[in-house]
Design a protein that fits this description.
Strand content: 25-35%
Distance between the termini: 24 Å
CATH topology: Jelly Rolls
Number of helices: 3
Order of helices and strands: HHHEEEEEEEEEEEE
CATH class: Mainly Beta
CATH architecture: Sandwich
Number of domains: 1
Oligomer: single chain
Shape: globular
Helix content: 10-25%
CATH superfamily: Jelly Rolls
Length: about 190
């Protein structure tokens, strides 16, 4: 029974995101605001995604595709974070909403200064945010997109990410030089 309720909340989120994208076709700020509200509702109670915990990676995070909308392109991906796992400093190139389902994530955002301000492409670190279950964070390119995520716990953490599209590539940033390097995303399991 709990699984049906969880599946229903995920399906309701999918339907709400589809509607939001129709209502705000060119308004990224409006999309992110409304998708954030929807994601918060979706993770307001635990989702029955036990298979994610059973399939949890041993030494690196996994991306598990929950939904890809053929019409609008948006994607919903579960991320399973092993203890201590940390991403490089990276961007997405599309809007995104991250909702913490279980555990905790430490989110650190960065500002990339334009050329000519304190050096070429300098990356400045902001204070990190401790995101706990039910919390939602966003990425909005190009100014609110560079970040890193770490699981500070000694247990698995799970987050649900809603993106404006499937990410096939992303940029990784060197905080010392400000240089970026294009990489391909890890495989998304289906």
């Amino acid at each position: 029974m709990a699984g049906n309720k969880s599946a229903s909340r995920l399906q309701e989120h999918i339907e709400r995101v589809s509607t939001i994208l129709e209502e705000y076709p060119d308004d990224v700020i409006g999309i992110v605001r409304e998708v954030s509200r929807s994601a918060a509702v979706m993770v307001s109670e635990p989702l029955d995604l036990e298979q994610l915990r059973r399939e949890a990676p041993v030494d690196a995070y996994d991306r598990i595709l929950l939904h890809h909308d053929e019409k609008t392109g948006f994607a919903i991906i579960a991320m399973v974070w092993p203890p201590g796992e940390v991403t490089p400093i990276h961007d997405h190139g599309t809007w995104g909403v991250v909702a913490v389902l279980s555990g905790e994530l430490e989110v650190t955002k960065y500002d990339r200064l334009p050329v000519g301000q304190r050096g070429e492409g300098v990356i400045l670190q902001r204070p990190h945010i401790d995101a706990v279950p039910g919390m939602v964070d966003v990425v909005i390119p190009p100014d609110e997109d560079i970040h890193s995520i770490r699981n500070p716990l000694e247990k698995i953490s799970v987050s649900i990410h809603t993106y404006g599209g499937l990410m096939e590539t992303y940029n990784v940033y060197d905080i010392e030089t400000g240089q970026k390097q294009l990489r391909e995303t890890r495989s998304v399991l289906i």
